[in-house]
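Q: Convert this sequence to structure tokens.
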Amino acid sequence: MTNKTKKIFITGTDTDVGKTVVSCAVLDYANNLGLKTVGLKPIAAGCELTSTGLRNEDALLLQQHASHQLAYQIVNPIAYQEPIAPHIAALKQGESIDLALVDASVNQVPDYIDVMVIEGAGGWHLPIDNRHYFSSWVAENKLDVILVVGIKLGCLNHAILSAQAILHSDANLVGWIANSLSADIANYDDMIDTLTVALSAPLMGEMPYFTSIEEKNEKSANYLNLTSYLSL
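A:
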């Protein structure tokens, strides 16, 4: 892959904070700029067993929102059916997570792709085993990191700790995106103001709470501000 491909890793303050929503919105935003995009979900647990093998809902959404279609095995090379921590799912099957499979997927992305969005699983320090974390792979591969902050009571601590952990990993935190987890959030503006000061990276968007999947798919990208960042 050439250096012109912008490789973005989407992580979150926790699980279920909207990483997939944001990942798809970033893909849509880049597509609207006329950029060629792909989305990867390298490690996924909570997959459905289908006639074509294990399939993860998040990975399928990334496929749908990308401008360039990759084989599913490239999008999601490491998949487990049980919805638990991936390294525990691997242990229960007598396996270990092999990050060489992730390297192979990334290397199969065509050179002409402008933007590669890689969605993590869980939070920043996803265990690969009892001693190693996926965050080390992200830092070693010099990916740009965008932190998704699920806005709710308690998110300030989670966001600040996550940002500190990303920076401590020597990873490149390029920005954060606020994602509202409910329709009515007390002191929303005050929390955003606090995080804008506390986090060293810029706020790249504020995602409202969507009442339907259709609205989410159609409008999410409208709430991002990535034009300067995505300038290639």
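The CA atoms of residues 33 and 227 lie 8 Å apart.
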